[in-house]
Design a protein that fits this description.
This protein is α/β, with parallel strands linked by helices. It contains 10 helices and 17 strands. The structure holds NADP nicotinamide-adenine-dinucleotide phosphate.
């Protein structure tokens, strides 16, 4: 099969289109014919070697954790799926090696669910990692109707899903983004504010009573600013800054594969409460350009790779 691989850590130039053996099928895995994958910031952070010690990488590695495709072959004990099923998933395994930037991927059944019928393969591939992160962060923060939720990096991959999920739960959402993304955020149902110096004052101006939940998807100083803005009993959840937990009594979320989480996202798509924003679609051979685009830190929604 053809796949994107890298044999050393480094810049996007280490990514090459190569021929690789087809993946082995384990007893609890299925082989998926990949239609599309998507890029997450973690992909280029791993490729740069920045997460060594946290995540094992076996070189040469095929990057990519998000997939949408069709089950081609089933393992010995995989009653959940049959050949021909259209699936999507966050194919996170213990080691980064056999990723989704490939024509075929072996996916443990614990990472996959049926693709939402209303989504194309390219849209579905944009969902799993970012959508599950948003869903888990919101679930674990206990977001409820009537609460005010502050979402940092609301226009990004995780943020755009979180805004919509919190709105679907009946929360008021304030989202941070640069001005170029304010109209986009209004379309998702959020009240936009510009991040950077003076952010706390801008949020206070529209939410004088403070925020009940702060969701930090930006890192940097967002957790510290959030701490100033919490209403009594409010809580911070971050996916980018562990001090939310260690210094502010909140939570740090590291997204796990979750079939029930994917099914919950599917239900939101089916109910018309969730949509996917795709900034750009790249061909598999353009994986390096897709990684570079993600590394700018200014993607609106998601970057997709068509296989
Ligand atoms: N712990 C986990 O499980 C987990 C899971 C997923 C992601 N993450 C991490 O969470 C972060 C976000 O992930 P993502 O996939 O959403 O990334 P992304 O799609 O690349 O995020 C891009 C967005 O960030 C916004 N942004 C950039 N700097 C900002 C700032 N200082 N304040 C507010 N917004 C800012 C940009 O808005 P403008 O263009 O308007 O500037 C853009 O819309 C990354 O660091 C990623 O590695 C962690």
């Amino acid at each position: 099969m053809r796949a994107i691989t890298y044999s050393e850590f480094g810049g996007a130039d280490v990514l090459e289109l190569t021929d690789q053996p087809d993946p082995h099928i384990g007893p609890d895995t299925v082989v998926v014919r990949v239609k599309a994958a998507s890029v997450n910031p973690v992909d280029w952070k791993i490729r740069e070697g920045r997460l060594q010690g946290l995540i094992d990488v076996q070189l040469p590695a095929i990057p990519g954790w998000d997939v949408a495709g069709v089950v081609e072959q089933v393992g010995l004990d995989t009653p959940e799926f049959r050949a021909g099923d259209e699936v999507y998933g966050y194919v996170r395994k213990d080691t980064v090696q056999g990723g989704t930037f490939a024509e075929l991927v072996a996916a443990p059944v614990r990472t996959l669910a049926r693709k939402p019928a209303s989504l194309s393969f390219e849209e579905a591939a944009a969902v799993p990692l970012a959508g599950l992160t948003a869903y888990e962060a919101i679930q674990r923060s206990g977001v409820k109707a009537g609460q005010t939720v502050l979402v940092h990096a609301a226009a990004g991959g995780v943020g755009a899903f979180a805004v919509q999920i919190a709105r679907a739960l009946g929360a008021r959402v304030i989202g941070t983004a640069s001005e170029a993304n304010h109209e986009f955020l209004r379309g998702l149902g959020a009240e936009p504010v510009t991040y950077g110096d003076g952010l706390a004052d801008r949020v206070r101006a529209i939410a004088p009573g403070g925020v009940d939940v702060a969701l930090d998807f930006a890192g940097g100083g967002s957790v510290a600013v959030s701490a100033e803005l919490l209403a009594d009993g409010g809580a911070i959840t971050s996916i980018a800054d562990p001090t939310a937990r260690t210094e502010h009594g909140g939570q740090y979320v590291w997204v796990r594969p979750s079939v029930s989480g994917l099914d919950a996202l599917t239900a939101l798509f089916d109910a018309g409460q969730l949509s996917v924003e795709i900034a750009e679609v790249f061909d598999l051979a353009e994986a390096a350009a897709a990684h570079r685009a993600s590394a700018t830190g200014h993607t609106r929604g998601k970057l997709v790779v068509r296989v």
